[in-house]
Write a structure and sequence with these properties.
5-stranded parallel β-sheet; single chain; 14 helices; alpha/beta; 25 strands
Length: 489
């Protein structure tokens, strides 16, 4: 594929198939989630020949806006974490005029909600007094401070957050709770597990709070994330139903094979598939990835949080942002997001995480929806049955095999950076390659831009044209700042 010599050499590459050849720099992007789409967008804008291969029949990846109810419902990512100009997605969201519904400000004890609009119930349907919820919330924060002291004492040793909680309560008997208060404390722990999409016995004490939270709190995308991903994808060469099975690095490029045997060649590739897919070795790399890269893939945690969306013919629940059911263990607790508060549509979303999410994924969709509805009927006996429902399967979906990454016990936070580092002409992107914003949409988006820039510099250096093109930073989407449309009714 190389002809000529010296400074006059030309690299002929094709990202379409091996039978076609092009003189322009070329890149294959694997994965059509936010990371892959943002990388493809930036490289296309930098005059690269780009083809994006996506295994699903849609783009978006773990962002999935469903319109089955007649209006948008995000069955994957749905929050903008950090409602501020510093958020790299804010300029695009503002320019598109997409409304946001803020669910919390900064430093909320519930991670993505304030204690301003909620209703907690016990298993018998009795509402938990507001003052008790507030009191236990302060105790929860005190326990977290105790676990911080424990982290300092332990130095390099790590342990799970569940173990740290247990030790903190042993040391501070005054923080122990009994009866209903104990169940409320378990619900707070349940919400922490929801944030990380995994059980507390797998969350690292040492690194659980290392992700960076942008200011401005958290907000729901009222119309879903699809308009954002569609805007980024406009005009790109995207091949749906193209599941990549092999990526071969060659001295002068990459050769990518998809499930039906078709091959694509280019100067470089951006690998932007979910961490769960990498962990499953669904893609064979030739030669094998370096040992340090394989270890990063193996040792990063991946959690599961699912959504069971229930559409009702009328609203019969309190006008609050979320409903919760307290129990004696986090596994027994429940959390329902009230979309009616944010969007005006009569929808509740049940959101199980960790082991509970995995157990529910073993059920049929009908059984899962029934399970969620029974949790609701425990606290609202007069609840009418849903007229429609949707069920996500992020943990078992072959295209995701998990919701998002987390810091596992005993594993270094530097694994995120190791996963990001390029290997020859392979570049890596996705939320699990973000040291600052893992598990977040803007984290995935940012890593796509970073991978695109690293790729651009590497490929153009080979062409001897490094200074001829502008940096691939997605300026088109960041050039104009438009105020975000935020509400909280």
């Amino acid at each position: 594929m190389e002809s000529g010599n010296g400074n006059n050499r030309q690299l002929k590459s094709a990202c379409y198939s091996e039978s076609e050849q092009f003189h322009s720099p070329s890149v294959i992007v694997i994965g059509g989630g936010f990371a892959g789409i943002s990388a493809a967008r930036a490289l296309c804008d930098a005059s690269f020949k780009v083809v994006l291969l996506e295994s699903r029949d849609r783009i978006g990846g773990r962002v999935c806006t469903d319109y089955s109810f007649g209006f948008p419902v995000d069955m994957g990512a749905s929050w903008l974490h950090g409602v501020c100009r510093e958020n790299p997605l804010a300029p695009l969201i503002g320019r598109l005029g997409l409304p946001l519904y803020r669910t919390c400000g900064d430093n909320s004890v519930l991670f993505d909600h304030d204690l301003e609009s909620y209703a907690l119930f016990d298993a018998d349907g009795g509402q938990v007094p507001e003052e008790l919820v507030t009191k236990v919330g302060k105790i929860f924060e005190s326990i977290l401070k105790e676990t911080g002291k424990l982290r300092e004492e332990n130095g390099e040793e790590d342990m799970s957050m569940l173990r740290a909680f247990s030790i903190a309560l042993e040391r501070r008997p005054d923080l122990r709770q009994e009866g209903l208060a104990s169940k409320v404390l378990q619900w707070y722990l349940c919400r922490m597990e929801g944030w990380f999409a995994t059980d507390a016995d797998t969350i690292s004490l040492k690194y659980w709070d290392k992700e960076e939270l942008l200011p401005g709190g958290h907000a729901l995308m009222v119309r879903g994330y699809r308009p954002v991903i569609n805007t980024l994808a406009k005009g790109l060469d995207i091949r749906l139903n193209h599941r990549v099975t092999k990526v071969a690095r060659r001295y002068n490029g990459v050769k990518v094979t998809v499930e039906d045997g078709k091959t694509f060649v280019a100067d470089a590739a951006v690998v932007a598939v979910p961490i769960g897919v990498l962990k499953a070795n669904s893609i064979k790399f030739e030669p094998r990835l370096p040992e340090w890269k394989e270890e990063a893939i193996a040792n990063l945690g991946v959690g599961t949080e699912n959504k069971i969306a229930m559409h009702f013919d009328k609203v019969f629940w309190p006008n609050v942002e979320f409903l919760g059911v307290v129990a004696s263990t986090p596994y027994g607790c429940s959390y329902f997001l009230n979309l009616h508060k944010a969007t005006g549509h009569p929808v509740l979303i049940y959101m199980p995480a960790g082991r509970l999410a995995h157990d529910i994924e073993k059920m049929s969709d009908e059984a899962a929806a029934n399970f969620a509805f029974l949790q609701l009927r425990r606290i609202l006996p007069d609840a009418s049955e849903p007229i429609q429902y949707l069920v996500s399967h992020w943990g078992t979906d072959i295209n995701s095999l998990g919701s998002y990454s987390f810091d596992a016990v005993g594993k270094p936070h530097e694994l995120y950076e190791k996963l990001r580092i390029p290997v020859d002409n392979l570049f890596f992107a996705g939320e699990a390659t973000s040291t600052r914003f893992p598990g977040m949409v803007h984290g995935a988006f940012s890593t796509g831009l970073m991978a695109a820039e690293d790729c651009r510099m590497r490929v153009l250096d080979g062409y001897g044209e490094l200074d001829l093109l502008h940096p691939a930073r997605g300026e088109e989407f960041a050039s104009r700042s438009v105020p975000l449309l935020i509400s909280r009714m």
